[in-house]
Amino acid sequence: MLGRLTILFLVLATLGLFVAVAGHKTEHDANDAPNTGDIVSTFLTSWTRPVPLFFLFRLGLIGWSIFTDSFSAHFWASAFVWLFVFRYLRTVVNTIGYIRLKPIMPAENPKYTNNDVTVIVPTVEPTAGTFVECLQKIIANIPAQIFIVTVGEDNVNAAKSLGERLNADNKVKIEVLSVPKPSKREQVVAAVGHVDTELIVSCDDTVFWPSTLIKYIIAPFEKASVGLIGTCKRVRRNDLPFGMASFLNLLGVFRLERTNFDLAATYSIDGGMSCVSGRTCAIRTSIMRDPEFQHAFLNEYIFWGRFGPLNAGDDKFVTRWLYKKGWEVAHQKCPEAQIQTILGVVGGFDRFQNQCLRWARTSARDNPKMMFRDNVWISYPWLAYSVLFTSFFNYSLFFDPLIITIFWFALADVSFASAVATITARPMLALVLWMLAAKFVRLAPHYSRHPSDLRYAPGIILFGYWHSLIKLAAFFTQHKIEWGTRAGVDAAAKK
């Protein structure tokens, strides 16, 4: 029976590749000049397509040999084929999906323009240098209005002074609002009641936009069923000497590179995304004005109401809400809508690890909800498999030794070893090299821009294993809902 299921799974794997190649596409301008990412994509497309298809075809033959004999005689071989395809099918299909995704270009006569957009910026540090640049970049996009929402009279005065200085020609209407305590969710909702445009773009205070962002991020709203739009992100790579500071910055870079890859890939294949990042996203004002939404947004509790209200995970909540209400989400992957931010440059390893822990806790809490309570797997099956379901098992510290051990035992099976020998004469080395290469697929765009960062590759692999322990700790501490890295947020939440 298990052998038959193995064959079925491999058939589905091949169909999955077909879906990635022939499936969901978005509009794009064929006259766009190629950039470095396009060159890398072309190289990856020409190199990756035949190899995985051939490899899966050979695995199919191996599965057939298992099918024609008794399962008990081929237990380890069958287990290896199942684990290998379960783990690496998503890498192959997501790579093709990522490469094929094109941006949705603005219409010649768009329904919405920058005059239909209000920007909301929650901040607790309006005097920080990063916020100054953030506000400058937003003003350059000329939205209809900007709301800065902060805490305390001193911060309000500082934000007003900054707005007057940067907006001396009154190019944009800027208003500063205040809430009693620092809470990103409460700060955003406080501004929504003052918005009189059809669209809202929310922006974190450490994010830097290109001058074309609003024009491109709102382009998918031409489709009436789209309610929320995310964009691609990049962490600024600091010019630091070789050492821990540079390595931590690189860890931050790779955090968003992996996220970019996964979001673009799943959106390309079936239109689903696990989370539209709150660093910058566009949403219809009508959604955020809905009293039902605001009440749920400000009163999210976990574990049967014992812990909350939550502050972190706001973007995951918004994404889930739109799926539950039948809205579509969209993703813009293009330089014109690419934001920049900073990660891994303040607070050292402890701060970055706390950020990773917060993100992992949010995923541990919300991924099962998306899968089973929100029934995302029905509308977006590829998203459900490649991100949500696999997140329950994606612990490389445990998986890598497991699959190598199972492969070792499987090679004792003469028929399996003979089949593998048709692929490679050094099967164990080939498996290890494949596993190592797979860890760098999502990072390829960054390495094409910064090849010197390959010197950190051993450290990146080791941190990946350490991150398995972070995720395990997050799973067992989901009830801890503190933000961890924002001044005053956690202390205010306890009052």
From TrEMBL:
Keywords: Glycoprotein, Glycosyltransferase, Membrane, Signal, Transferase, Transmembrane, Transmembrane helix
Compartment(s) of residence: Membrane
Signal peptide: 1-23
Transmembrane segments: 61-85, 377-396, 456-476
Gene3D superfamilies linked to this entry: Spore Coat Polysaccharide Biosynthesis Protein SpsA, Chain A
Pfam families found in the cross-reference section: Glyco_tranf_2_3 (PF13641)
InterPro entries noted in UniProt: Glycosyltrans_GT2/GT47, Nucleotide-diphossugar_trans
Name of the molecule in the record: Glycosyltransferase like family 2-domain-containing protein
Organism classification: Eukaryota, Fungi, Dikarya, Ascomycota, Pezizomycotina
